[in-house]
Amino acid sequence: MTGNPSEPVGNFTIDDDVRNEEVGKPQVLVDKRETAYAVRRKQSLRARYIFGFIFFTTNLLAWFFRDYGYKILHGLRHIAVCGEKGDECFHAGGVLRVSLGCFIFFSVMFASTFGARKLHEVRDCWHSRCWILKFLLFLVSIVISFIIPKTFIQLYGEVARIGAGIFLLLQLISMLQFLAWCNSQWMPDPQSGRCGFFGLFLSTISYIASFSGIVLMYIMYAPHLSCIINIFSITWTAILVIIMMIVSLHSKVNNGLLSSGIMGLYIVFLCWSAIESEPQNEKCKTPKKMAENGDWTTIVCFLIALCAIVMATFSTGIDTRSFQFVKDEAQLEDDIPYRYEIFHFVFSMGAMYFAMLFISWELDHPTRKWSIDVGWASTWVKIINEWLAASIYLWKLISPVIMRDNAIHHEESMQNVHSLV
Predict the structure, then answer these.
(1) C-beta separation of 124 from 118 below 8 A
(2) Which Pfam family name is an example for this entry (predicted)?
(3) Closest Cα to residue 103, out of 355, 362, 319?
(4) Rounded CA gap, 90 and 67, in Å?
């Protein structure tokens, strides 16, 4: 065998073999890069659930400080900012301090991940990994909240009301985006040949559940005519459901029954939740017997409500595309799967939201054990949230019609001007 590099070896020459190796190297690098991006994407998606668990743990911690911290954590009574008897670090004060710690943690995460767009950035590594450092950051945030003076905690409580309102607004935006997605997926589409049977079935179930819920609320919460607030709330809710159905079916809107049915069910739920938040001593509510430490039904309801808070925050937080002013046209392989800064911002507002639910939106109002969001302030917050949700949904239905009619009118006016000239 000679040293000629072009000498045939089998069916190939040595030159061909070298060229194949040179071509294969870039492909191997591409495959490794794609594998690395896939691993980082999975880490990023998994991080959402870890942050959700941290948020859930913080909720449990706030409940513990509110209901049992005074009896167990005697050492906090010696901290100056907790007052002579330690009252400023327990009950409502304890909830606000834990909420502030959670808010600090997610605010730092928001600031440190702001502007992250690629999976190979350091900010992506900080968001998806480095859990020991983030755990230490969380502990430091909680500790800081318990060495802050009472005056600042009271100020935070006032600000938390605004933050909780912002969270409810973000939740409503996410809900409207979900309705639009349902319409696009399950409503009949002549172009694609989709019959929309499941959408019709779901809209029927939604309306049946909505009107059944309204009838049940009349029976349970309006036993006599003196229950004016409950009668008005239930009746107005029924009117809103009917108005949304009529507007959705109007020939100029033609939005179908699915989104209006789901939104109707949602506002019926808000109405029921608002009435349930009324104080237990009201004559229009069936009094619930409860032991000092809570019976098992009360505890189960509390845990369900706690999980609902976490799920509401988590579902709103992962829906980051709903809050982007500029939508991403196409996602590249090295793009992050969701906006980290929006995710952490929603959770920081959720920290304020759960604080308001635990103290019933009143900073100095005594709360009952194993209770969440009970009191007249909570009732009216939910009622206003219901009316706002229905109003924004109706505006979203009719605004395209109004703008289209204005555009047509403007075009006709311009044509008349040109014809006169």
Answers:
(1) yes
(2) Serinc
(3) 355
(4) 8
Q: Which residue has the tokens 């409860």?
A: 290
pLDDT digits (tens, 9 = 90+) for 63-99: 998 888 888 777 777 777 777 666 778 888 889 999 9
Burial (CB count within 10 angstroms: exposed 0-12, middle 13-18, buried 19+), residue 112: middle
For 298, other C-beta atoms within 10 Å of its C-beta total 18
- Which one-letter DSSP state was computed for residue 89? G
Q: Say whether 152 sits in a helix, a strand or coil.
A: helix
CB neighbourhood size of 339 (10 A): 19
Question: Tokens 């991006």 map to which residue?
Answer: 37
Cα–Cα distance for residue pair 164/183, rounded to 1 Å:
29
The dihedral over CA atoms of 109, 112, 114, 119, expressed in degrees to the nearest 10, equals: -100
DSSP assignment, residue 86? S
What's the pTM value of the predicted model, to 2 decimals? 0.80
- Summarised one tens digit per residue, pLDDT across range 145-165 is 999 988 999 999 999 999 999
For the chain, the domains span: 31-323+335-409
